[in-house]
Backbone:
């Protein structure tokens, strides 16, 4: 289950295939903001004979995420790479980088992306038990995915906004 | 409860208006309102405040049948129902109120 440097990605993936992990299970990305500022691309493989699993991942720079294409090693990876490009804005050098479903751009599955519709619309969970409307005076409950409004007004970092949206109490820096 | 996930049934007597389902719902499709009443559980006992459910609505145009509300309900007031939600001409007709959810 190794972490791989982005520069050695193709080499390590090819080595895993030679070692018998010939089945591409999944290829996806995870926004690790809050832990690190990087994006993680994870590849899951299986050995069809033994059923044994194998994972490879690498961390990519948030501003310029570029990774080598592995579609010639696992042809099925092409579709998944295009999906990662759509959702996380990762470019696969030498690969097919055409939009798959998201043509608007903007990496919608990054945790730093604000869910504006959720901020603007009324959340049914804001009503307290035993009442009919959300009371404005009391401590306001926030739905998942919506950061603290005081944090948004301040010059918070992307990481602080993402942590606040995941339900953590993030204090404003003084 | 049957194995089919056609719709969600409400058993209003079991509901304590705790709001857990409405807060857990990923699509925000459950709308609840309630009020508080003083009840005396037994003659001579101290009066207690209790939440009483007024309205309970599920917007089937938003629901994705994930079952989180059913799983999270601490009193089993929500159950899977094998009956499908019938089609409607307008989105507003897919907002089913308490009476329809209970039947």
Residues:
């Amino acid at each position: 289950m190794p972490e791989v440097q982005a520069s050695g990605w193709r080499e390590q993936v090819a080595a895993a295939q030679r070692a018998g992990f010939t089945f591409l299970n999944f290829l996806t990305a995870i926004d690790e903001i809050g832990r690190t500022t990087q994006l993680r691309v994870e590849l899951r493989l299986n050995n069809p004979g033994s059923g044994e699993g194998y994972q490879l991942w690498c961390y990519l720079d948030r501003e310029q995420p570029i990774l080598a294409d592995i579609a010639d090693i696992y042809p099925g990876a092409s579709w998944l790479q295009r999906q990662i490009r759509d959702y996380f804005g990762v470019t696969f050098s030498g690969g097919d980088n055409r939009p798959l479903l998201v043509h608007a751009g903007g990496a919608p599955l990054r945790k730093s992306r604000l869910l504006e519709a959720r901020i603007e619309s009324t959340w049914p969970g804001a009503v307290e038990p035993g009442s009919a409307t959300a009371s404005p005076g009391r401590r306001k409950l926030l739905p998942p995915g919506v950061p603290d409004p005081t944090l948004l007004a301040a010059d918070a970092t992307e990481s602080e906004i993402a942590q606040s949206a995941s339900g953590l109490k993030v204090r404003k820096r003084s | 409860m049957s194995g089919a996930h056609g719709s969600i049934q409400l058993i209003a007597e079991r509901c304590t208006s705790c709001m857990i389902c409405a807060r857990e719902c990923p699509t925000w499709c459950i709308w609840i309102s309630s009020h508080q009443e003083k009840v005396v559980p037994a003659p001579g006992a101290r009066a207690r405040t209790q939440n009483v459910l007024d309205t309970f609505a599920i917007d089937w145009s938003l629901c994705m049948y994930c079952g989180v509300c059913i799983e999270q309900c601490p009193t089993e007031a929500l159950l899977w129902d094998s009956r499908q939600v019938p089609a409607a001409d307008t989105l507003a007709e897919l907002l089913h109120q308490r009476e329809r959810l209970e039947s």
Observations:
- The radius of gyration of chain A is 20 Å.
- Chain A touches chain B through 13 residues (CB under 8 Å).
- The longest strand of chain A covers residues 23-31.
- The mean pLDDT of chain A is 89.
